[in-house]
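Input set for joint prediction.
Command: fold jointly, output tokens.
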Amino acid sequence: MKKAVLAFVFFISSMHTTAQQAQEVLDGVIKNYEKVKDYQADVHIVADISFIRILPMNARIYFKQPDKMRIVSKGIAILPRQGFDLMYRSITDKNSFTVVPQGNELLEGVQVQVISLLPLSDTMEVIIAKFWIDPQRHVIMKSQITTRTNGTIAAAYSYGSFATYGLPDQMTFWVDVKKFKIPKAVAADLNNNEKKEQPKGKDPNKGKIAITLSNYIINKGVPDKIFQEK
Amino acid sequence: MLAIIQTELVKIASRPRSYIGFAAITIIVSIIHLAMAEDGISYLGFITQSFEQSFFMEGKILNGNLVCFIILQTLIIQVPLLVALVTGDLVSGEAASGTIRFLTTRPVSRTQVLLSKFAAGGIYTLLLLLWLGILALAGGLLIFGNGDLVVLKSDELVILQQDEVLWRFMAALGAAFVALLLIASFSMLLSCYSDNSIGPIISTMAVIILFTIIGTMDIPLFDKIKPFLFTTHMVVWKSFFDNPVPTTQIWQSMIIMVLHIAGFTCLALFHFNRKDILS
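tokens >
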């Protein structure tokens, strides 16, 4: 009996330790983010969505703590609705999520720690968030966030010289999409009877957006009026 | 020949019905501009609502190019009717008013008379189309500004960059002009067979409406008929807003339309030259 109690106590304490370690890894990521008060960068956006045909677009992204973000483009750019902020909000909101360590994995030659966040309330938008974190550089390599309204948003990140700030050089998002259909009368597209063929090997229910960031300017100040102009 | 065309243009200009098309286009375009200025955002919101939970569009979506495209899409059925209103009357109107006998006794051949009427009808069509283009595009750009064009389709969106849009509108108007010339030649053909104004106009409108309905309905039986309807090829102007532009399909439709124009005109010439003018 004594042995069983001891084993149980050991199990609980080891669980607590790994959860604590996982939280420390997350804290490292948050610390990286907190180094950035503001930044701006050039972005090159390539969208691959079955029902939207758009050429690659160049734009400029502006960010200012705590949550101001704006993308300024000459033309129209398609972006994931919850790509940028949802991940950050999930890992920084310590009171709303339980940290669950899920072991280690090898991801593109990097030993990463897999950590899941489970919401404490069943009414939260996020159902589960999973992160693949490089514990050496304190950066998120991959994320997968399942939400109530938007399905699953998966993302992969690659880092260059701004990894110390947690800022990626490239982000790729995979977003669940529903079938796009609007009434012909609304689109004034009465004569369109073409049967659209889906390219082979492409999932019509997934949209992919690849964003390449360059020319970062970090902590040099971004005027507030940029976030007000619309 | 130029003198006869000039006379025919004066005749067109002297008829009040020739201005109905310009007035109708002005009213429709103004109403759409007003509606888009007032409710354009919510209209676009309805279109983008199915994907806005997953994505958002950054940039100026509601702009002059989009409004112009919506206007052109909306007026696709109406403009041919407005053209037929004038061109369907060019020969039969003469018969109805009793001037056709006088016309055919002039020292010009019947072929020249009919071709000059066709040319005058073509110039009228071009002016009507230019009016539509100027009002829709220039007016739209003035009110809503410039920007990338979101081409609205029932099953997809094509986003074209601002620099790419103007030549496409010009090319589309060129293709639309050929399509409207087809209507002009068809209505003139019917006009040669009739001695009253209303018959050819109504018949042309009826054929356009019938063909458009068949072309619009997603019924397998109609799918076999659609390639043979000239209205199917008349919407080829929209192909200029695809990316990449389907040039083969455009050439195919343009050739079919030109052949129709030539066929209708030849048939009209054949009948008009042999027509026994009794009135």
